[in-house]
Every structure is written in C-alpha cells, then in structure tokens.
Amino acid sequence: MKKATILVVDDDQDLLTATRILLRPNVKEVLVEHNPERLIHILERNKVDMVLLDMNFKSAINTGNEGLFWLAKIKSQFPHIHVLMITAYGAVDLAVKSLKQGAADFIVKPWQNEQLLNTINHVFEENQQVQKVHPVFVNKEFDGIIGKSAIMEDLRYKMDKVAPTEANILILGENGTGKDLIASALHQRSLRSKNAYIKVDVGALTETLFESELFGYKKGAFTDAREDRKGRFEHADGGTLFLDEIGNIALPQQAKLLSVLQNRAVVPLGSSHPIPVDIRLLSATNVPLKTLADESRFRKDLIYRINTLEIQVPALRERVEDIPLLAQHFLAFYNKKYHKHIEGLEQDAVQKLKQYHFPGNVRELQYSIERAVIMSDGTSIRAEDILFSPIEQQLEQPKPVEFASHNLEEMERKAIKSAIERYNGNISKAAKELGLTRAALYRRLEKYNI
Q1: What DSSP string runs through 386-424?
Q2: What confidence score (pLDDT) does residue 63 get?
Q3: 0.85 exceeded by the pTM?
Q4: CA spacing 20 to 30 A to 366: which of 11, 163, 216, 262?
Q5: Do 70 and 9 touch, CB atoms closer than 8 A?
Q6: How far is the CA of 214 from the CAs of 50, 194, 257, 269, 343, in angstroms?
Q7: 363 near 379, Cβ under 8 Å?
C-alpha cells in the first residue's frame, strides 16, 4: 500500500479533499478527479494501482449505472488496476453486480477512516497472496504478436535476446506495423516487467508541452501550473519509457532529451534541482534509419543514445503468409464486439487479402475486417465483403520520375520539379522527400530557375 498510487473519482469535492488528506500519509501518491469523463485520460498518463470509484455521478439518478459503466471501461483497458467501488446505498445486489464485473471490493459512505484504510490494504495484501501462488509470467504465444512467417520468427528471436537486457532499443517500421505492440512485448519480457510502462507520443507534443510532459514542472512555473506535477520520466522511474514517433521531434527538443539521457536526471520546469531517474528507453519511428542519420534532421549523438540496438518491424506485404492468421484474429475480435457469428473467411476473400499490398499495413487489414464484419449478412466473409481503405489508396507512393537523359543536373532538376508539384508547392514537404534542408532546396530552385 505504501508504494501505491490511488486515483479517487467522485463528484463530491469535500469527499475528494477528505480522502486525499486521509490517504496521503499512507500511500505513494493520491490523485483526485470529480469528472469521470477524464478518468481514462488520467489512467493513460499515470501509473495508477487502484481507483476508488463512486457509483453515482448524477444526483437525480442513483442507480449505480454510471459507476458500473466506468468500472467496465477501466477493466477493459486497464485490467491490472484494482477498482474499489464507493456507494451511499449499500444495496447487496448492486454490490454483487460490481464484484461480478471485476471490482475488487466496495465500501459504503460515510465510512470510518480506519475501515477505508483496512479495505484498501486488504485488496493489496490479497493480490500479493495471489501472485505468490500464481506468479505473473508472460506467455509469448499470447503477447499479441501474431505470425508464423520466417521473418516474424526472426523478430521474436531477436526480441528474446534483447528484452532482458538494459539496452536502449530503437524500433523501426512503417505506420501500422505494430511498433507499439513490439515495445509493450519487450517491456513484458524484460526484468522491469513488474514496474511502470509509460508510453508517450512525442511526435504529437508541441515544443511548449514537450518539457512539461516529459520532465514535469513545479507549482508556479507557468500560468496554469497550480501544483507540482511529475513528468513521464519520473513516472517511468524503475520501469520502461516508450517514446513513440521520436523521429518527428525538432532539434531543440532533441538537445533537451539528449541532456536527460546523458545525465540520467530531469530538471522540472521552474526548478533548478535535478531529479535522478532510472529508466529503460524504448523509441520508435517510421523514419528509415538512413534518413534519420541526416544531421540536418536528427542529432547523431542522440541516435547513438537511443539506438544501442534496433529492431525492424516488417511491413505486412513482407509477410503475406501471416495475413490469414491476422484476419482470423480480427474476425474473432469484431464478432464479439458487434455480436456477430461469422464463422470464417471464404477462400476468395483470403486470396483477395493476400493479393493486396496493404500500404496501411496491419492497421489497414484490421480496418478492412471490421468493415466486412459490420456489413456482412452471411455466415462467412466473402471477397465482395472486403473493401480496402480509400485513405490509404490516396496515400499510395507516386510512380518514380522517369528521366529522358542521364545528365545529373537534368535529373536533379526534374526530381525537384516533380516533388514541388506533388506537394502543391509546399517547400517543407518537398525538401523532406528530397532529403534536403529548406535552405538547400531554395538554392536549387534558384539555380534551376524553377
């Protein structure tokens, strides 16, 4: 209990304040929230061990359905989190219903402080006993990585070699190949598997948010900083930090990240005191390593820091023999989700899937199967039930530029002109495709009078 982070969700602000004061000396951290709509967002951003969840959030409707709804959401997305239900109405049938749906226990308010602490402690002690009898282990056959092709067997072999080490790993692969799944599996197979696993999509962070999200901040560091807040590095202390889309961060952000990795300490915004952090770093990008090594785009010293070893996740078109297995997996998933009873895929449907090149990779296959399950009225998926994503078809790679001569200057001129036309005059995108800086592209535009 002393090592636990507990989230209390209740629309009674007085209860939140009182519970926070009661729990603070007894647990590692207490988070409070009055709006259940923010619950999932908080769980995604913090390593929470237990949620104290009110059953009623509408004063005129005291059915407990709100609490049961959010209980189901928590258990489906975060099955390892214990949920202790709070209710002012100690109806046995409602309590039993919440227990059947995965709640660890329930408590009736108003409660005695000692009673609440004992209940929470009992849940954690009971869980420890279960783990001693049934030790937690990772079944590699069911880690979500589906495929029996040779290239996937090689991938699993490499993962088995690198996962137990402390090496920083860079995961490379196209969009939709499942890089985040590989990162999660590496953590589960590592010596840090019982500690935090924190994922951050750094490519989506603005320059302003980058430091506060990763390194945290002190109260008063900026206008909305009303209290101290830990960053993702601190939350991942002792565990694994996964930085997704790392190839998209700007050079100033790269310098700050490099400093933290070199010093193994973060300095929160508004503070001058470094805080030591012990993390194992996993990173992922859809940018090829050769492109990433361009120093005008990405610092080489940072690449060496994040890339002790790299893992290349294959595109779906490189493992066509795995497509039927993946399709069956998604079929079973969406059968359950949409209450369908579709038995399988007909041979013409399988053939259609295997002949398609899947620019969107596994993500596009998942989309196609979901759509087929929704639209199908039969007992099996037929070829005509399968439609491929119009989004990905629009994003297919353009045909290579054909050159009438092999004069280098003429070839460069045509390549530049083609890139400019393809991106409707967007210099940044054209420069990125050509592997040039904006300044270098402008010089060539002037040189060739384009």
Answers
A1: ----HHHHHTSPPPPPP-SS--HHHHHHHHHHHHHHHTT
A2: 55
A3: no
A4: 163
A5: yes
A6: 23, 22, 9, 10, 46
A7: no
Helix (H) or strand (E) holding 121: helix 113-133
What pLDDT is recorded for position 138?
39
List, edge to edge, every strand of the sheet that includes 240-244: 197-201, 240-244, 280-285, 169-172, 309-312
- Counting beta carbons within 10 angstroms of the beta carbon of residue 198, is it exposed (0 to 12), middle (13 to 18) or buried (19 or more)? buried
Alpha carbon of residue 76 to chain centroid: 15
Q: In sequence order, what E strands does 238-322 have?
A: 240-244, 265-266, 275-276, 280-285, 309-312
pLDDT at 83: 92
Q: Compute the residue count for the chain.
A: 450
Prior bond of 268 cis (ω within 30°): no
The 10s digit of each residue's pLDDT in 274-324 is: 999 999 999 999 998 888 888 888 999 999 999 999 999 999 999 999 999
Place of tokens 């002790």: 308
**Is residue 344 within a helix (H) or strand (E), and if so which, with residue range?**
strand 344-345
Q: What is the pLDDT of residues 82-139, one digit of tens each?
A: 999 887 755 556 666 777 778 888 888 788 888 899 889 888 876 665 444 333 333 4
Q: How far apart are CA 23 and CA 131, in angstroms?
A: 25
Angle between helices 323-337 and 347-355 (to 10 degrees): 120
H-type alpha helices, 138-281: 150-162, 179-188, 207-215, 232-235, 251-263
The whole-chain average pLDDT of the chain stands at 85
- 52 vs 193: CA distance, rounded Å: 25
What are the pLDDT digits (tens) for 345-401?
999 999 999 999 999 999 999 999 999 999 998 999 999 999 887 766 544 444 454
- For residues 64-86, one letter each, b for 16 or more C-beta atoms within 10 angstroms of the residue's C-beta and e for the rest, the string is bebbbebbeebeeeeeebbbbbb
Q: How far apart are CA 57 and CA 34, in angstroms?
A: 9
Rounded to the nearest 10 degrees, what angle do helices 65-77 and 92-100 cross at?
Answer: 20
